[in-house]
Specification:
- By secondary structure, the protein is mostly helical.
- It has one domain.
- The chain is built from 10 helices and 2 strands; from the N terminus they run H-H-H-H-H-E-E-H-H-H-H-H.
- Strands 1-2 form a two-stranded antiparallel sheet.
- Strand 1 and strand 2 form a beta hairpin.
- The longest helix is centred in the middle third of the chain and has 27 residues.
Length: 275
């Protein structure tokens, strides 16, 4: 359990790390912030979730605004996914407070491991020159003439479903949903990698704001930790934007996958040892 005796100086440093990963991957901040808060600050899943979401809302929101200025954010698609996610996030938040902490930690650990393996495998195939794993005719296509998505019924419903799933998991596990949105957009659209990441940040920020609002009203948000962690994450995201342009995104994805895999193993080991 969290105590105010916990050294607060560690909190913005942890936020800096998470924001840095979020800027590089579009997903890292959301998926790794909760285990970082659990094991370094000794919070429960229910306590860590709202804090992680506030950090995501602030740092991802800034990243999305900067991306919009560069015209790499598909704001209409992001808005649709976010509105869908806002309807399902409160359900996940409610369920998180009904379930015991231990099963949630175990579930989170398994999700991290599965995602890490998939991220690494996809990046490895692309590095070897294999074609990207995506539809030849995905439901959402970018019109090269206008630079905008061509809206069709399959595209609409696909984005709506992506948003609903990411919103529910955001509320349940305290993640931003980027680990769902990024691979889904790569699979079901022909957007560029930068546009995928930046659109993911836009969705994550809106869903997180809604979830944080619910938590704040319910009185479950620990504000001192949340604010320091959020400030650190903003700094990390701004730093990563400067460095990301000179790095291979596939190598970044592989590094993130290995790191995520190790965190997942650690979560499961700690959970089973505490049984």
């Amino acid at each position: 359990m969290f105590s105010m005796e916990t050294p607060l100086i560690l909190t913005p440093i942890l936020g800096l790390l998470i924001g840095f990963l979020m800027g590089l991957t579009g997903a890292g901040g959301g998926i790794l912030s909760v285990p970082v808060l659990i094991f370094f600050l000794h919070l429960t899943m229910a306590q860590a979730g709202p804090i992680a979401l506030l950090a995501i809302a602030s740092s991802a929101g800034i990243g999305a605004l900067l991306a919009h200025k560069n015209k790499t954010l598909r704001y209409k698609a992001a808005a649709l996914m976010a509105l869908s996610g806002l309807t399902t996030a409160p359900i996940g938040l409610w369920l998180a407070h009904q379930l015991p902490n231990q099963p949630l930690v175990v579930l989170f650990g398994f999700i991290l491991i599965m995602l890490a393996i998939r991220f690494f495998w996809i990046a490895q195939k692309e590095l070897r020159g294999s074609s990207r794993i995506k539809n030849q005719n995905p439901p959402c296509l970018l019109n090269n003439a206008t630079g905008k998505l061509t809206w069709t019924a399959p595209c609409f419903w696909t984005l709506l479903l992506i948003g609903a799933i990411s919103g529910f998991l955001s509320g349940l596990l305290g993640v931003g949903g980027g680990f769902i949105i990024v691979p889904a957009l790569k699979r079901f659209t022909n957007l560029s990698p930068h546009s995928v990441i930046h659109s993911s940040l836009g969705v994550m920020s809106i869903i997180a704001i809604g979830s944080v609002g619910v938590s704040a009203v319910a009185g479950t948000l620990i504000w001192p930790i949340a604010l320091l962690f959020s400030l650190g994450s903003i700094g990390g995201l701004l730093i990563s934007r400067k460095l990301a342009q000179g790095l291979n995104p596939l190598r970044i994805q592989q590094f993130f996958a290995v790191f995520t895999f190790l965190v997942g193993i650690y979560m499961l080991t700690k959970s089973f040892l505490n049984l």
